[in-house]
Amino acid sequence: MVNRRLENSINDFGQKLVNLSAGNLQRRGKGGGNLESSLKYSINVNNDVYTLDFIMEDYGAFVDKGVSGAGGKIKTGKHAGTYDGINQYKNWKSEVLNTPFRFGSGRSSGSIYKGIGSFIRKKGLQPRNELGQFQTTVGLKIAMVKVLWTKGIKGISFFQNALRVTYKNFQNQFAKEFNLSVIDLIRKETR
């Protein structure tokens, strides 16, 4: 039996979480793209058990939690220095954790080198010569991959922060709706 009060409360939670996650992406300059438009949720009810699923592009987990680098030394440029490559993020419980993702771990289906090309085009970073003609991006790709591979990518916890805030607010609302649902059920059963 579907409990409309509980379902509405869960729907409200899902919508607030999606909206806040999208807002966090926008505030961090990562909004307006495929990741933001992919944020969705769905509710499934099976034997009076409610399941709330959150859906986003696969790379959303990397943006949220970051990716650790291999560590090492970058000899020149603005990123010159020695790095351990470890990146951390703050989860929805406000705990600071090491990211579970790492370059070179073999757990990703994509290539960092392949993705850099589209990033360069999207951000308008493709080099030009004196005449304003576009030049090859090979050198820029190699330099960017070296920095990312060594340092990693810092996560922005856009989803984790949204979950923390939404869950905190939801606890009181859900408890109230659950209590009202139980009272309604008792009234129906004792008539």
Question: Would you kindly provide a written description of the structure presented here, covering whatever features stand out?
Answer:
- With 191 residues, the chain is α+β, with helices and mostly antiparallel strands.
- It folds into two domains: 4-61 and 157-189, no CATH class; 67-153, no CATH class.
- Helix content is 48%, strand content 16%.
- The protein has helices at 4-27, 34-38, 60-65, 112-122, 138-151, 158-189, and strands at residues 40-46, 49-55, 67-68, 72-74, 81-83, 88-90, 96-98, 152-153.
- The strands form four sheets. The protein has a two-stranded antiparallel sheet with strand order 1-2. The protein has a two-stranded antiparallel ribbon with strand order 3-8. It has a two-stranded antiparallel ribbon with strand order 4-5.
- Strand 1 (40-46) and strand 2 (49-55) form a beta hairpin.
- Helix 1 packs antiparallel against helix 6 (158-189) and helix 4 packs across helix 5.
- The chain is elongated, with a radius of gyration of 22 Å.
- The model has no long low-confidence stretch (mean pLDDT 85).
